[in-house]
Write a structure and sequence with these properties.
Layout: E1 3-11, E2 17-24, E3 29-33, H1 40-55, H2 63-72, H3 80-101, H4 105-109, E4 117-125, H5 128-140, E5 145-150, E6 177-180, H6 182-200, E7 205-209, H7 216-226, E8 233-235, H8 245-252, E9 257-259, H9 270-274, E10 280-281, H10 285-288, H11 291-303, E11 307-308, H12 318-330, E12 337-338, H13 344-349, E13 355-357, E14 360-362, H14 375-378, E15 390-393, E16 398-399
Parallel strand pairs: 4-5, 4-12, 5-7, 6-15, 7-8, 8-9, 9-10, 10-11
Antiparallel strand pairs: 1-2, 2-3, 4-14, 13-14, 15-16
Helix pairs in contact: 1-3, 2-3, 5-6, 7-8
Length: 401
């Protein structure tokens, strides 16, 4: 079998997506997600100018060799652009290999370790009462785990708390600038979880995302303040670049910690895993460089009692979600899967076999990872430049988002 062509498809059915589609001389095709939210065109250039030319004519079943060639052969390794590009190629190759084997991807990985995957969803509000209502609705929908976020009194609405009031771009099409105050946040968030437990009880697992906005000692204080409410996890407590900072957090709180959605290689997480400084690793297929490296990362995490929790925002395509689900069904140390429901137009462009039912996900039994792309429909949704927000403190200092 030989690779005959590779298409890079950029479309915006609700969100921007970069899709790699690999063609072979035996008629099999595979797709992979290569989306890097807010920097999509950088990945497109990397793919078209550097990866596609060296892959035509190669055997698509030599996945390991191709991955090593693209990673080690570049010299300038790692980084979000490089790894998203490699991730799109690698996922498409696994799709082809599983189709050639006539089985769903999870079977090729070694088979299922469970029947279904517990998912968590998001609930937010500009005020505590609104968030409590939103979590209750998610529970009525059958979800057992919910990430709860709330607006902060005295601050404008921020991303993830009030969709109606927060956009990702300003009127000039440039990044939206938001305002942040750590003291106000630290005073208010424990009140949210006190209200959630008081109104909704203990049958729901509660999660919370800090968005990297705290210092280590601030994160330790928040984790300690939230201990009475038994969170499933506290996510992205501090800026992820400084792995050693989690040593301090661990010294002061037993609230479980999750991290990794911005990580690109195992080296970003090695110390965190080996010293058991986190409880959940949140790396995802597209940003980690594909199925090949993420499987290794999951195995490493399992040796240290760290569970998987793949990032699953809607700015990664259903092809990425599908790959994550196959890995999750296989991984013996699976923890939970983030699920952010897609817009209808996204699902039309990316029809797939994965399903959601009673708060759980399953990748389905289709050969490959189970997601395809409707190229004709994708062409009707042209790329639209977009940005993630920028964060500033009340005095104007640029801060972590």
């Amino acid at each position: 079998m030989k690779i005959t062509d590779i298409k890079i498809i950029v479309s915006s059915p609700g969100r921007n997506f970069v899709t790699v589609k690999i063609f072979t001389d035996e008629g099999l095709t595979g797709i992979g997600d290569a989306t890097l939210n807010g920097r999509e065109k950088a990945v497109v250039a990397y793919l078209q100018d550097h990866l596609v030319p060296v892959l035509t004519g190669r055997d698509p079943q030599r996945i390991e060799d191709i991955w090593q060639y693209l990673y080690k052969g570049a010299y300038w390794r790692r980084g979000p652009v490089t790894m998203a590009a490699i991730g799109g190629i690698d996922t498409a190759l696994w799709d082809i290999k599983a189709k050639a084997a006539g089985m769903p991807l999870y079977q090729l990985l070694g088979g299922a370790s469970r029947e279904r995957l517990m998912a968590y969803v998001h609930a937010q509000g500009s005020e505590i009462a609104q968030t409590v209502e939103a979590v209750a609705r998610r529970m009525e929908e059958g979800f057992r785990a919910v990430r709860a976020q709330v607006g902060i009194p005295g601050l404008p609405a921020v991303y993830g708390t009030d969709k109606s009031a927060t956009n990702t771009a300003d009127l000039n099409g440039l990044p939206q600038e938001e305002v942040w105050s750590t003291p106000k946040y630290l005073r208010h968030v424990p009140k949210l979880f006190e209200a959630l437990r008081g109104d909704l009880g203990w049958e729901v697992e509660l999660l919370h995302d800090v968005h990297h906005r705290l210092t280590p000692i601030e994160a330790a204080r928040l984790g300690k303040d939230l201990e009475p409410f038994r969170l499933f996890w506290l996510e992205d407590a501090v800026a992820a670049e400084h792995q050693e900072s989690f040593r301090l957090i661990r010294q002061h709180t037993v609230t479980p910690l999750a991290l990794g959605e911005v990580f690109n290689t195992v080296w970003d997480a090695r110390l965190l895993i080996e010293e058991q400084l986190i409880d959940y690793i949140r790396m995802t297929t597209v940003h980690a460089g594909g199925v090949t490296p993420l499987r290794r990362i999951m195995d490493l995490a399992g040796l240290y009692n760290v569970r998987t929790a793949c990032h699953g925002a809607m700015d990664m395509s259903p092809a990425c979600l599908a790959a994550n689900l196959h890995l999750g069904l296989w991984a013996p140390n699976f923890g939970i899967q983030e699920y952010s429901p897609y817009m209808p137009e996204t699902l039309d462009v990316f029809p797939g076999a994965w399903t959601v039912s009673d708060g759980h996900l399953h990748p389905g039994e289709a050969h490959g990872h189970g997601v395809e792309i409707d190229e004709a429909l994708a062409a009707k949704f042209p790329y639209e430049r977009s940005y993630l927000p920028v964060n500033r403190l009340e005095d104007g200092t640029l801060w972590h988002w």
